[in-house]
Amino acid sequence: MKVLHVGPLKGGIDAYFRIILSHIGCDFDFVAVRGADDGDRPYVRNGQEIKTYRTVTHRALNPLRDLWALLQVIWIIRKEHPDLVHCHSAKGGVIGRTAAFLTGKKCVYTPHAFSFFAAKSERMKRLYLWIERHTKFHSSLIACSGTERMLAIRKVDYPEKKVFLWNNSIPDVDIEMIECPNGLAADEQYIVTIARPSYQKNTLMMVEIMNKVHKVLPNVKFYLLGAGDNVYAPLQNEMKELIRKYDLESVCKMLPWLPHKDALGYLKYAQLYLTTSLYEGLPIAVLEAMSLGKAIVASDVVGNRDCVQDGLNGMLMPMESESFADTICELLKDEDRRALMGKNARKLFETEFMVEQRIQQLESIYTKIYHA
Questions:
Q1: Are the beta carbons of 356 and 242 closer than 8 angstroms?
Q2: How does pLDDT run across 145-186, given as a tens digit for each residue?
Q3: I need a surface site. Which of 12, 153, 177, 334 has the fewest CB within 10 A?
Q4: If we measure between CA atoms, which residue out of 321, 209, 221, 304 comes closest to residue 266?
């Protein structure tokens, strides 16, 4: 079966695509259609680059450019003749589902967090929800979390029989092979997060939290992996300014998007993983922290609730910096409780989020949608 993947293939979606590309069975052939501002790293399967197209799509709304991208995807579909079109994210979903509908192709959509969560006003939220509802056409939906599946049925009005669940999943790692990153002391106490400085990731709140933690535990450091000029990081300068305001330059470090092995090194040696996101699909970085047996302190929002069980493998927190800071300090002082949460995180990862055990379910979903 040939599956054409359409969307902004970057960040978590890029990781999602690379994971399924490297694990799906040989009966499936993938073609990638990525956006204009996506990265250039090739998609490789069994040592060979897969066929990849690039459209004019950008993250921001632009009716003329998006119409041109739609025409490009229609042309690609007619050239490639895929059995199934798999669209990713809101922009990829609108363009891909419309193109599949106009070319008569079977189509499936994965939101990776619905677009209306990104709206900063009720008016925009209603608009995004209207778009989600009215560009479904004949598509099915593969939710990346149980909460996303529920929202697809109850809020976006997808028929239940056309909604499937495949939890975001990642490969297992050999923890013994992960090395301590250069410049990081093995006995250093620190909290880590992998996130672009952005509205969704709520990174300014992280600085507020660390300011409060620093007053109680001044030796604890904080590393954010995902800054830099080569990634979409709209709050990067504001975050730097806030760090300077609180005089936290010595303990709050913003690092660029690192090679995967280096990012895993920072995860392995951290005391805690922190996420303050306003919404998620199902966060890949949290799953990686769980695979390495780390306790998670997370905002109590869509996506995080699907992998963090409050009190079991971490803590789900209200959007209050004081509550976050108090919980972080308590866990940093209680090594036994932190270790138990980390052990539970690893068990939960093994049963629910290990791709080696779940990829056949995705293959079955693709086949079911194609034959429907």
A1: no
A2: 999 999 999 999 999 999 999 999 999 989 889 999 888 887
A3: 177
A4: 221
The one-letter amino acid at 190: Y
The domains found in the chain, sorted by start residue, are 2-171+355-371 (3.40.50.2000), 175-352 (3.40.50.2000)
By DSSP bridging, strand 314-317 and strand 296-299 are parallel
Gap between the Cα atoms of 115 and 126, Å rounded: 10
Which pLDDT tens digit goes with each residue over 303-339?
A: 999 999 999 999 999 999 999 999 999 999 999 999 9
> Strands 48-49 and 44-45, how do they pair?
antiparallel
pTM above 0.70, yes or no: yes
Identity of the amino acid at 137: F
- Lookup: tokens for 259: 């090679």
> What stretches in the chain show pLDDT beneath 70?
229-230
Q: Are 209 and 222 in contact (CB under 8 A)?
A: no
Report which of 8, 7, 12, 9 is spatially closest to residue 200, judged by C-alpha positions: 12
| Nearest Cα residue to 295 out of 282, 286, 284, 304 | 286
User: For the range 260-266, what are the long-range contacts, defined as Cβ-Cβ under 8 Å and sequence gap of 24 or more?
Assistant: 261/178, 261/179, 262/181, 263/194, 263/225, 263/288, 264/173, 264/178, 264/288, 264/292, 265/178, 265/179, 265/180, 265/181, 265/184, 266/181, 266/184, 266/192, 266/223, 266/225
- Cβ–Cβ < 8 Å for 313, 290: yes
